[in-house]
């Protein structure tokens, strides 16, 4: 419960503030921590960017919230064999370019990517028989991270330079593959026939337009990694604002 966790969270926050103070900053305390993830970026710059995005996104979310039933995604209200989901996901990310000779995929509670060199990059996904989209798009997302890591210059292996340019750049690659490519209609014009071979009973009568709309349905979620392309950024906005308030002792 939160009562049990509270003292531990308070200690973590206190240590984080001490770390930021030790690192030093000119304007906002968040700047010291932000630099570790996005070098040269300032809190004020992020706020300006997020405010611009919120101006456009929030009205869209409000408009869509009254029309959630327009898109029928009931094709996912059934069970999909977990082993078949796994095998299909492997086929997809292999074709996208993830090199299984220099990496692998396993299961975990939360999808992530880790690597030890450009020749050893590992990803994980999670699989639920009643949540088809979760495993596949997690695999595509993590393979985006992994392909970026596999493409780094090998001369930097075993050095502190064997990392991406920044976490922002890294996330741009994972979400490019997950959303711009993985949720694209042309992507599914190719892949839906392959998917039907794995799940003929569930998808035999489903056409590509129905499938395309279903995987792109906008629906608010309390879980960030399960969020759709429209509402995902709202999670980031909220976390950013709460983190700043906590660091500045405003909450």
TrEMBL record:
InterPro entries: Peptidase_M32_Taq. Gene3D superfamilies: 1.10.1370.30. One of its GO terms (molecular function) is metallocarboxypeptidase activity. GO terms for biological process: proteolysis. Transmembrane segments: none annotated. PANTHER family: CARBOXYPEPTIDASE 1, METAL-DEPENDENT CARBOXYPEPTIDASE. This is Carboxypeptidase M32. It comes from marine sediment metagenome.
């Amino acid at each position: 419960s939160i009562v049990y966790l509270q003292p531990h969270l308070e200690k973590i926050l206190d240590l984080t503030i001490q770390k930021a103070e030790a690192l030093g900053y000119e304007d906002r305390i968040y700047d010291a921590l932000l630099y570790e993830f996005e070098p040269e970026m300032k809190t004020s710059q992020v706020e300006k960017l997020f405010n611009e995005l919120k101006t456009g996104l929030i009205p869209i979310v409000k408009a869509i919230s009254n029309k959630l039933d327009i898109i029928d995604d009931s094709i996912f209200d059934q069970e999909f064999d977990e082993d078949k989901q796994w095998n299909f996901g492997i086929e997809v990310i292999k074709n996208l370019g993830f090199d299984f000779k220099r990496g692998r995929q396993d299961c975990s509670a939360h999808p992530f990517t880790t690597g030890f060199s450009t020749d050893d990059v590992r990803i994980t996904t999670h699989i639920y028989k009643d949540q088809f989209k979760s495993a596949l798009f997690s695999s595509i997302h993590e393979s985006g991270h992994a392909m970026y890591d596999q493409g780094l210059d090998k001369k930097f292996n075993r050095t502190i330079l064997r990392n991406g340019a920044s976490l922002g750049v890294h996330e741009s690659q994972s979400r490019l593959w997950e959303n711009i490519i993985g949720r694209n209609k042309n992507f599914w014009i190719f892949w839906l026939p392959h998917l039907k071979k794995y799940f003929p009973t569930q998808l035999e009568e489903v056409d590509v337009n129905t499938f395309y709309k279903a995987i792109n349905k906008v629906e608010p979620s309390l879980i960030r990694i399960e969020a759709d392309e429209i509402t995902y950024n709202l999670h980031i906005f909220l976390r950013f604002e709460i983190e700043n308030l906590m660091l500045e002792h405003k909450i």
